[in-house]
Write a structure and sequence with these properties.
This protein is α+β, with helices and mostly antiparallel strands and 168 residues long. It is 28% helix and 32% strand. The chain has three helices and seven strands. Strands 1, 2, 3, 4, 5, 6 and 7 form a seven-stranded mixed β-sheet that branches. A hairpin with a 4-residue loop joins strand 5 and strand 6. The longest helix has 28 residues.
Length: 168
């Protein structure tokens, strides 16, 4: 019996832009396979492209913006039954202007912990988990930094800066 799957995974990239402890997600246009699902913007790596080149091209096509592609975040493989996707995600910075909707229904900035993995494709779900862990670690670290600042200098100015009551 022959398998209907392709012989090797399809390489796909996704970019994670951040702003004020939030990440940018986009809602796909309705199609037959992933009807209106949310995703981290990106797309298929074309022959002869590096992952970074593909991600820059996809953001330009999808949002009309240039990005700087940073460090990789996580690589996941997901079997959709008829195809296998190898998804590599990267941190990215938007270099010019707000993203415009060219290929999506909507975009949204969200804290990772507020993302509902059930409305994302299977390949994106492990990325959501990684982002939640990293952002929670950063939040705990920032809280510890505030506590350290207050313990080492409990002046009203420091307390106000750290968002703790009583600062004049």
């Amino acid at each position: 019996m022959k398998s209907s799957k392709q012989s090797s995974p399809i390489r796909v990239v996704a970019g994670v832009a951040t702003q004020d402890h939030q990440v940018l997600v986009a809602q796909r246009q309705p199609d037959t396979q992933f009807i209106s699902w949310w995703e981290f913007p990106g797309g298929k790596v074309e022959q002869g492209e590096t992952d970074q080149q593909a991600l820059k091209r996809e953001w330009r096509e999808e949002f009309g913006v240039d990005i700087h592609v940073g460090a990789p975040i996580v690589e996941t493989e997901f079997d959709y039954g008829d195809k296998v996707i190898l998804l590599r995600s990267f941190w990215c910075d938007i270099l010019d202007g707000p993203p415009m909707l060219h290929h999506h229904q909507a975009i949204y900035w969200s804290e990772p912990r507020r993302l509902d993995a059930g409305v994302f494709s299977g390949a994106d779900r492990p990325l959501i988990k990684v982002l939640c862990e990293r952002f929670n670690r950063v939040a705990r670290s920032e809280s510890a930094d505030k506590a350290d600042a207050i313990l080492h200098d409990p002046s009203p100015a420091i307390m106000k800066k750290c968002g703790v009551g009583g600062g004049q």
